[in-house]
Amino acid sequence: MSIQYRPITPLIGAEVDLDLRHPITPAQAADLHAAMDRYAVLVFHHPEALTNEQHMAFTLALGPLETTQRNAMRETSGDFRIPDAFNDVSNLDGKGNPYARDDRKRLFAIGNRLWHSDSSFKVIPAKYSLLRAVRIPSKGGNTEFAHMGAAYDALDDETRQLIEPLVCEHSQLYSRDLIGFREFTEEEQRRFAPVRQRLVRTHPGSGRKSIYLSSHAGKILGWPLPEARLLLRDLTEHATQREFVYSHRWAVGDLVMWDNRQTMHRGRPFPAEQARDVRRTTIAGDAPTMAQAQPLAA
Fold first, then answer.
1. Is the pLDDT of residue 74 over 70?
2. What is the mean pLDDT of residues 102-110?
3. pLDDT digits (tens, 9 = 90+) for 177-213
4. Which of 14, 24, 236, 244 could covalently link to 28 via disulfide, CB atoms 3.0 to 4.6 Å apart?
5. What does the alpha-carbon distance between residue 193 and residue 70 come to, in Å, rounded to a whole number?
6. Pairing outcome for strands 277-282 and 87-88
7. Beta-carbon neighbour count of residue 61 at 10 Å?
8. How far apart (Å, rounded) are the C-alpha atoms in residues 274 and 157?
9. Are 201 and 289 in contact, with CB atoms under 8 Å apart?
10. What CATH number labels 4-291?
11. Sign of CA dihedral 31, 258, 144, 165
12. What angle do CA 156, 122, 44 make, to 5 degrees?
């Protein structure tokens, strides 16, 4: 039986009827890859919550894990709570308690409330992210997704020609600076050294172009810094208009998978004293965006 998809909005997202407690077949994996090309975000509801093992088995059936530079702030403090193959993007410390409001790891993590694309600060950025809700707060904590392919399609021709050849520098140093988090050790500054990404990328599955935006993007090569940041801000405002966005309201057991090659996302605020236990696996990307062929000169 084929997998059933129910579109959530006209431009982004679909709910999926598939029980992830059972292994998927190669044919189902191929079907899901095609659906990701089309919908960019897939939502799986599970009233009976998945285990870490089931979550991981589903991930590995779709592709290899991204294994570089996970849980950056937790690594420096040894504050691990769940298996190392997962990205712990909760607000909980190693004992399962919410971080204090002024805890350094919490303040770094709330940078995820900015629009971003996972691992855009790595030479080979991530392909898919798969986030699962184990505990959720009483209010807030939604995750919003914006479709960068649809946003690119809606640009005028002049803007497309302007941004087509541009290359940005991405780093978590840039995104955290936006929220006033600036105290980094020398080792952290080395860890977060900027990498280059194209501002327009082509999706390998669909062949569709998209704007490659993220709060991690802080410079445009060859541009004065103020002008570069204003362009990136204008593009982000354009790309996050309501028609391009799906906001997911979490329920325990939900697993949401998104394609970082054609989306941005952000978390929304929730009460700091309440637990939000969400666990992410990340599928490795295929190639650096800088390996993408440069556009021909007009």
1. no
2. 95
3. 999 999 899 999 999 999 999 999 999 999 999 999 9
4. 24
5. 15
6. antiparallel
7. 15
8. 47
9. yes
10. 3.60.130.10
11. negative
12. 75
